[in-house]
Design brief:
The protein has a seven-stranded mixed sheet. It has a three-stranded antiparallel sheet with strand order 1-2-5, with no helix packed on it. It has helices at 34-40, 134-156; strands spanning 8-11, 18-21, 27-31, 45-51, 55-59, 63-66, 74-79, 85-90, 95-99, 115-116. It has a single domain, classed as Alpha-Beta Complex (glutathione-dependent formaldehyde- activating enzyme (gfa)). With 157 residues, it is of the alpha+beta class. The protein is built from two helices and ten strands; from the N terminus they run βββαβββββββα. The longest helix has 23 residues, at 134-156. A hairpin with a 6-residue loop joins strand 1 (8-11) and strand 2 (18-21). The structure holds zinc ion.
């Protein structure tokens, strides 16, 4: 895998909120949970995960953060103008989640590695990615994948 990543400026759909993702995200998942469906107004949330230190120039004046009941440690930001996802923060802001639709160049992102909360899906996915169901399984797999992603980043330095 190439370590080259051209920084991208992410934004909500109306560009009122912007930020720069400076390194290749450490993970990418497709989450089918009902909260992600509500948050994105789509069938699922195709989202990248980055470390806080990899994201800069946060301009989130028009982002309103809200916490749903589960998972309890994710703060999801919606744009107050376009009402579309702006950015999400997990683990007290140490992890930054960005829906892939908020990137100008989705092709430069890592491929998604799994489906989460697949039992909540609106539609079947025609791919070979692993599909995990429910909170316990989904949470366990995301923690594992992020740990691997972080290890790769740290060991590269
Ligand atoms: Zn907006």
């Amino acid at each position: 895998m190439s370590s080259e990543f051209t920084p991208q400026e992410g934004s909500c759909s109306c560009y009122s909120n912007t930020y720069t993702v400076n390194n290749k995200p450490i993970g990418r998942f497709i989450c089918h949970c009902t909260i992600c469906q509500e948050f994105t107004s789509q069938a699922y949330n195709d989202v990248t995960v980055s470390m806080k230190s990899d994201v800069s120039n946060l301009n989130l004046i028009r982002t309103k953060f809200r916490r749903w009941k589960l998972p309890p440690n994710i703060s999801r930001g919606l744009c107050t103008r376009c009402n579309k996802p702006s950015i999400e923060m997990a683990l007290g802001g140490n992890l930054i989640l960005v829906p892939t639709t908020n990137y100008p160049d989705i092709a430069a992102l890592p491929e998604p590695t799994m489906h989460l909360y697949y039992n909540r899906r609106v539609e079947d996915m025609d791919d070979d990615l692993p599909k995990y169901n429910g909170f316990v399984q989904s949470q366990a797999m995301i923690v594992k994948a992020l740990a691997q992603g972080m290890f790769k980043r740290v060991s590269k330095r």
